[in-house]
Amino acid sequence: MASSSPASACTRRKKVPLILCPSCENKTVVKRTSKTASNLDRIFYTCPDHEKDGSGCNFWVWEERYMKYLKKNGLIAGEEAAHVNAQVAASLKNAGQLDETKV
User: Fold this and answer.
1) How far is C-alpha 38 from the chain's CA centre?
2) Any idea what the Cα angle at residue 47 is, between residues 43 and 52, rounded to 5°?
3) Which pLDDT does position 78 carry in this prediction?
């Protein structure tokens, strides 16, 4: 009998919609994971045409800002954004990257 406990269900992230890039309106944004030492495994969203050297599309945001954008534009419910933002804050706090004065 397969069932999930409420605790395990709460720790899973909900699927976040990938939208048409708000900057260039040309391609669908992609979800990526940072590999830098200062933000290791932190999730961000970017346009596939974004380049590190600043060329191409300029859309690039951390997960929490992307969630705020989706909520502001009615693309996700407020509870869903709050759930993901709480998980992001907890993981950043555990990694020592969260400045609690800005929360």
Assistant:
1) 17
2) 80
3) 73
